[in-house]
Specification:
The chain is mostly helical and 336 residues long. The protein has a single domain, classed as Farnesyl Diphosphate Synthase, CATH 1.10.600. 71% of the residues lie in helices and 1% in strands. It contains 16 helices and two strands.
């Protein structure tokens, strides 16, 4: 069993390593993305390119490419599916920003602020449709099943998050269900299509799907921790978005678990009733720090990360496999 090591020193991040190793493949994917976001309606490519060209880690399509290469699969097919995965992800971002009334994405104004909610929702729908066209063009019903199922699960996860929003009775199990749906399911699908198009056996396919699922869970828990962690924040994510939106995430659940009556009352009016005033975010951060909720959140992410690493035990050792292992640690202990 390969262990997570929070003190590992990676001079070049594993994400950078993947981007370098798969540079030609990502160039092909980006060309497909540009080609398939075109439309006779000028607003569609204009809005789509605003978000797609604004940066982002491209971790999901990179996973599809990396896992396909790891399995010796057809990279041209992987290009199509990686583009489909990125379209699904981008569509969900457009929809999420409307639902959350976000004002910033990747360090600049969100698309809904620049173009309006209606345009953001409709272009998101367009990108979902393009994703399905790319899936169909691959010609595999199994691939279509995997990615279409993930698309449905993502929507369920977002709705479930809406239901749990501001609900202080939310359980850790329900939180896990939310992040599995809204985030981890697409990571899992991105990793599953690689062994499928490579014709790998069921055990290998399941192992790589499970890797993606556990990595996605670790990634989202770590992201939720970052929302309250000013010491690790850099450009790209605004502190306190989840707090302002009343989202019940790992740091909140751990803080609630240890809260006294006075603290529970604070959470009730700031998150439950969404009655927030100046200074409440800082007080929330102080309570989270008091109860070591950030560290507990990172410990939870590490647990998911260890599961991701363990699933790769049946995969033959290679430099690419090691990069996927290192990617787990990077995803948890990254900074913005």
């Amino acid at each position: 069993m390969t262990s997570l090591n929070p003190k590992i020193d990676i001079k070049t991040s594993p994400l950078d390593q993947l981007q370098a190793e798969l540079a030609l493949d990502m160039k092909a994917v980006n060309s497909l993305i540009i080609d398939h976001m075109q439309s006779d309606v000028p607003l569609i490519p204009h809005l789509a390119s605003y978000l797609i060209a604004s940066g982002g880690k491209r971790i999901r399509p990179l996973l599809t490419l990396a896992v396909t290469k790891l399995c010796g699969g057809n990279m041209e097919r992987a290009h199509l599916l990686a583009a489909s995965v990125e379209f699904i992800h981008t569509a969900t971002l457009l929809h999420d920003d409307v639902v959350d009334d976000s004002v910033e994405r990747r360090g600049k104004e969100s698309a809904n602020v620049v173009f309006g909610n209606e345009a953001s929702v409709l272009v998101g729908d367009f990108l979902f449709s393009r994703a399905f066209q790319l899936m169909v063009s691959d010609g595999s019903l199994e691939v279509l099943r995997i990615l279409s199922t993930a698309s449905a699960i993502i929507s369920e996860g977002e709705v479930q998050q809406l239901v749990t929003q501001s609900n202080l009775e939310t359980t850790m199990e329900e939180y896990h269900s939310v992040i599995e749906g809204k985030t981890a399911s697409l990571f899992a699908a991105a990793c599953e299509v690689g062994p499928v198009i490579a014709g790998k056996d069921a055990d290998t396919t399941k192992a790589l799907r499970d890797y993606g699922m556990a990595l996605g869970m670790a990634f989202q828990v770590a992201d939720d921790v970052l929302d309250y962690d000013a010491d690790r924040q850099k450009l790209g994510k605004t502190i306190g978005d989840d707090f302002r939106e009343g989202k019940i995430t790992a740091p909140i659940l751990f803080a609630l678990e240890a809260a006294n009556e006075e603290e529970k009352e604070f959470w009730t009016h700031t998150l439950g009733a969404r009655d927030q005033k100046d200074g409440d975010l800082e007080h929330a951060q102080a309570l989270i720090h008091k109860h070591s909720a950030l560290q507990k959140g990172l410990d939870l992410a590490d647990n998911f990360g260890q599961k991701a690493i363990d699933t790769l035990s049946i995969i033959p050792n290679s430099p690419l496999k090691q990069t996927l292992i290192d990617l787990v640690h990077f995803s948890i202990h990254r900074e913005y």
